[in-house]
Amino acid sequence: MSHDTEFLSLATEAILFFSIGTFRMFVKNSFPKSSMMSSVLSVLRTLTVILLILLMSGCSASGTMPPPVPIELRGVWLTDDALFASRETIAEAMQFLADHNFNAVFPVVWNGGTTLYPSSVMEQWFGQPQEKPGRRDPLAELIEEARKRNLAVIPTFGLGLAPRPPENNLVLNKKPHWAARDRHGNAVTRNGIAWLNPLHPEVQEFVLALLSEVAKSYDVDGLQGGDLLLAEPIEAGYDSITTALFQETHAGNTPPQDVHDTHWKYWRAVRINSVVQKLYWRVKAFKARFVMMWAPLPYRDALNSYLHDWRTWIHENPYGEFYADAISPQVHAGNIQTYRRTLDAQHRDSLKIKQKNRYQFPAVVLKEGSGAVTQEALIEAIRYNRVSGYNGEVIFSYELLRQDNGKLAGALKRTFYRTPARLSFARAEASAEAQASR
Question: Which residues, in sequence order, are CB contacts of 264 under 8 Å at separation 6+?
Answer without folding.
Answer: 237, 255, 256, 258
